[in-house]
Design a protein that fits this description.
Length: 446
């Protein structure tokens, strides 16, 4: 059973989004609101890679309550007919500002800004946070893997360990944006045009009477794409069996996969055996519990591994499985709004933020009032939806991936470390800082 699709996504929201919306509706509070989505500081990430925008745009353009949705809401007895009639004609008519997918971003930056009647802006909150969070998590994890092994093939092997079908699809898309070359997820290949990769499972080898027979059968069907899984019984005997089959059939070995054991020692010995038998072009692919830390260790120790299949640790972003992200009201009906909760104070007003470069590297980011101009700064928030209609399109996924790799070069080297914590805190413009302090005093003095 599939739980969400384009027909029921309007109900993929927290109840309080709808109960608040009904109150707004009854009290005729549906003036324009501005909400900012941002990430709070995280001591395990020096930067974040933005992803998921196209998924959000598609949701906003197709958000429509069906008669089934209306009937279910009616059955809860929490909503009045007038409000249900409003939902029947619901359509997002607001503005969406966002950074581009493939941009490096940092904590406390307004990376998405929604400007819409407050009912619309409120109802979309849950989907926005859910989808953007996992997209950023996986894209960032992928880029961290890429950062320590830019010359290696990195492949998403994580679909079976993802937290649900949607998560598996988003992970494939986001990891590709983050520098991976492909995925094992066939549906992601169809839907997103991502190259797909795969070898064989241990069960395939075990289903045959011998490992050699398993390799023979596979090679007879895929003579040009023979990547043998060699660690089912004994890794070194496995590579010897692969060589025996290849020589017998007169084919090249595209590669071998090692999924367990001491990857450093085994890869060196497997490489030696392949080379002395004339298979110098055959690649070694490692999988099984791989993450950026293990990749770095193996690369630093010069393990002769050409490719890594990264699974569970990638799709769950295992060392940082969630973002402390927020979607906060910053303006309503033209008036600034801010939260003063302890350690969760927000910055009011509709905003823009600028990036300043020096010698091709990110120097600093400055968050400002929306209408401010920051000299030598590059505007990061761009208008994608205006009055409910798309005015800017994201490029194809391949171009977003290429953009990521270009943008990554602008990140100062000190920020690329996966073990040292260092992050960039955006500056707040003097004008916005002054406005914020004045509002804070006014609220506390009210």
């Amino acid at each position: 059973m599939m739980f969400t699709d384009c027909r029921n996504l309007p109900l993929f929201t927290d109840l309080y989004e709808l109960t608040m919306a009904q109150v707004y509706f009854e009290k005729k509070m549906d003036k324009t609101a501005v909400f900012n989505f941002f990430i709070r500081p995280n001591n395990k990430r020096n930067y974040f890679l933005f992803a998921g925008l196209d998924l959000l745009i598609d949701y906003l353009l197709n958000l429509k309550f069906t008669e089934d949705d209306i009937e279910f809401l009616r059955s809860t007895r929490k909503f009045k007919e007038e409000f249900l009639n409003y939902l029947r004609n619901f359509k997002f008519t607001g503005n969406l500002y966002s950074v581009d997918e493939g941009e490096i971003v940092f904590a406390n930056e307004p990376i998405i800004q929604v400007e819409a009647p407050i009912i619309q802006a409120q109802i979309i909150e849950t989907f926005l946070m859910n989808t953007i969070q996992i997209s950023i998590l996986v894209a960032t994890k992928a880029l961290r893997c890429y950062s320590v092994a830019p010359d290696k093939m990195l492949i998403d092997f994580g679909m079976r360990r993802a937290h649900g079908t949607d998560a598996g699809m988003i992970a494939a898309r986001s990891s590709y944006i983050g520098g991976f070359v492909g995925t094992s997820n066939v549906l992601a290949g169809k839907e997103f045009g991502i190259p797909i990769y795969g070898t064989m499972a241990h069960s395939f080898v075990m289903a045959h009477d011998t490992e050699e027979k398993a390799f023979e059968n596979f090679a007879s069907v895929y003579p040009e794409n023979t990547i043998f899984l060699i660690d089912t019984y004994d890794t070194l005997e496995g590579v010897k069996n692969a060589i025996k089959v290849a020589k017998k059939k007169g084919i090249r070995i595209k590669g071998v996969r090692i999924d367990s054991g001491d990857l450093l020692t085994l890869s060196k010995e497997v490489r030696r055996i392949l080379d002395i038998n004339g298979f110098r072009d055959s690649i070694i692919l490692a999988s099984g519990g791989i993450n950026e830390y293990k990749i770095k260790e193996l690369v630093d120790k010069k393990a002769p591994i050409d490719a890594f299949g990264v699974g569970t640790e990638l799709v769950t972003s295992a060392d940082t499985p969630y973002l402390d992200c927020a979607y906060k009201l910053v303006e309503y009906d033209g008036k600034p709004k801010m939260k003063l909760s302890s350690k969760k104070v927000t910055v009011p007003y509709k905003k823009q933020f600028y990036r300043i470069f020096r010698n091709g590297k990110i120097l600093k980011d400055i968050v400002s009032h929306f209408d401010e101009i920051v000299e030598d700064g590059v505007k990061m928030l761009k208008l994608y939806i205006k009055d409910g209609e798309v005015v800017r399109r994201s490029p194809p996924l391949q171009e977003i991936r290429e953009k990521t790799l270009i943008n990554f070069k602008t990140l100062p080297d000190t920020f690329k470390s996966i073990t040292q914590h260092m992050t960039l805190s955006p500056e707040v413009s003097q004008r916005l800082l002054k406005s914020t302090e004045e509002l804070k005093k006014a609220i506390r003095g009210a």
